[in-house]
Amino acid sequence: MISSLPAIFILYPLKYKYNSANLQNLSIKFQDLVMIKKIIKILAVVFIISFAFLGIAVYKFAKEIPDANLIKNYRPDLASEVYDISGKVIVQYFDKKNRIWVPMSDISNSLIDAVITAEDDTFFEHTGFNYKEMWNAFNEDIKKGKFVRGGSTISQQLAKNVFLYKKKTIERKIKEVFLTYQIEKLIPKKRILELYLNEVEWGDGLYGIEAASRFYFDKHGYEINLSESAILASMLPNPKYFDPYKRLSRVIKRQQRILQLMLEAKKITKEEYEDALRYKIILREDKTNKRFNIENLKYKNNKEAACYKNLIEEYLLERFGEDRLYRGGLKIKTGFDIEVHNNIAAIITDSIKEPDKVFITLEGDIIKSIICLSDNSKVEMDNIKKKLESLGPPYNFYNYKIMDENDIPWDGLILETPSKQVS
Q1: 399 partner at 20 to 30 Å CA-CA among 69, 90, 219, 409?
Q2: CA 360/CA 405 separation, integer angstroms
Q3: Which pLDDT score is estimated for 140?
Q4: Among 252, 286, 320, which residue terminates a domain?
Q5: Range of the domain at 240
Q6: Are residues 232 and 372 in the same domain?
Q7: β 366-373/357-363 pair status
């Protein structure tokens, strides 16, 4: 036993030394735990404060969205149209947006299907949001470090286009979510689609399917065929870039993709698909005889509006006011005859030139034509009348007068009280 003592005395200090090291490690770990707890507390406070600020911001943004009555009773600004005696639109007057309202019954089914296929293929199933597309868009935005892809449904686009703004910000996206929820709760799906198709931009200053159909194809919205419908639907992501007047080949590539998706979704048959691919797209500007007079929009060789349109605008502004004329969607039926006007203009503009004067054609008290004159040439009215009467009826029954602009008998322009477009 005595012989084992040295070993005990040797082992005891080692054991004591080992326990001291443990205590030191435990002390360090304890200090680390204290620090970790402090960090957690700080992070918790930061989180709570951030969450509180986020909550306040969300509440603020939610309070700023339109109330239910405005959403349910929304009416867009509409262009006013002036019709001649035969029902042709001779001019449109609008502020910044050329929009002609049409109900769903006046929009072709092929256009409706093409837009839903291209923009929101689950429109009638979801309650305002396509979460899969939103997640895909979010991931792509994170990868790129900026907003590069949209995952918005038609309902979200309507919220943005009508009540918000296009610039992509966190504030707008938060408001968009609340507003989309309200829209889906307050408005039936078909009404949402009707509003969207009349609101969405289809080019510079061009809004809604009716204005787009006239501008690109010289047709009404209900006359657009399947091939043309897919062209219009293909433009929606960026109508100023995917402009068929500028980049038709690129637009056609997108059109073909939309037609393929419509075929896969069984919205069209194989035969309809092939017919649409074979159809030759003819844009309005490539047509010889145009139905709609829309020279106040682009692609018109920068021509100024005809003088008579400016004179009519001045009169209508005085009579109805700026708000009703440019945003009220008036339908103004007149006794003006655009065909008669063009035929007379072909003779008059080469024959008569007088300063600040107009050549008026009247049928009784009804204005049939107004032609502006310029320069100082004097003419024989009898010679002009002979040229016009040589055209035969009805030209030989009209009264022709040269007068000052201020003396135009405007009471003879409008045939009946203007009606409003129903939106």
Answers
A1: 90
A2: 10
A3: 61
A4: 286
A5: 99-286
A6: no
A7: antiparallel
Tokens of 133: 């597309």
Tell me the Ramachandran region of residue 388: left when phi exceeds 0, alpha when psi lies from -120 to 50, beta otherwise.
alpha
pLDDT exceeds 70 at position 83: yes
Q: What are 334's strand-pairing partners?
A: 414
Rounded Cα distance, 153 and 130, in Å? 6
261 and 140 assigned to the same domain: yes
- pLDDT tens by residue, 103-134: 999 999 999 999 999 999 999 999 888 777 76
Are 27 and 172 found together in one domain?
A: no
Q: Answer whether residue 250 is part of any domain.
A: yes
Question: What residue has token string 């320069």?
Answer: 375
Of 106, 148, 154, 108, the residue nearest 129 (C-alpha) = 154
Residue range 319-335: average pLDDT? 94
- Alpha-carbon distance of 113 to 313, in angstroms, equals 38
Specify if 73 maps to a domain: no
Widest Cα–Cα separation across the chain: 154
Above pLDDT 90, what percent of the chain? 46
Tokens (6 digits) for 364: 């009784």
Alpha-carbon distance 212 to 208, whole Å? 6
How would you classify residue 205: left for phi > 0, otherwise alpha for psi between -120 and 50, otherwise beta?
Answer: left
Please give the pLDDT value at position 39. 73
Domain total of the chain: 3
Over residues 335-354, the mean pLDDT reads 79
The rounded distance, in Å, linking the Cα atoms of 124 and 158 is 15
Name the nearest CA neighbour of 164 among 178, 153, 150: 178
Task: Based on the fold, state whether residues 274 and 330 are members of the same structural domain.
Answer: no
Find the helix or strand (DSSP H, E) in which 140 lies: helix 131-144
| DSSP-derived 3-state class of residue 201 | strand
Residue 90, domain member (yes or no): no
Instruction: Tell me the three state secondary structure of residue 177.
Output: helix
pLDDT in tens, 14-66: 444 445 555 555 555 556 666 677 677 677 766 676 656 556 655 555 566 67
Q: What is the pTM of this model?
A: 0.75
For residues 326 and 200, state if they share a domain: no
Q: What is the pLDDT of residue 31?
A: 64
Pairing of strands 206-207, 98-99: parallel
Same domain, 267 and 393: no
Regarding whether 221 and 311 lie in a shared domain, the answer is no
**Please, are residues 339 and 361 in contact by the beta-carbon 8 Å criterion?**
no
Q: 174 in a domain, yes or no?
A: yes
- Is residue 155 located within the same domain as residue 117? yes
At a CB cut-off of 8 Å and minimum separation 6, what does 103 contact? 194, 422
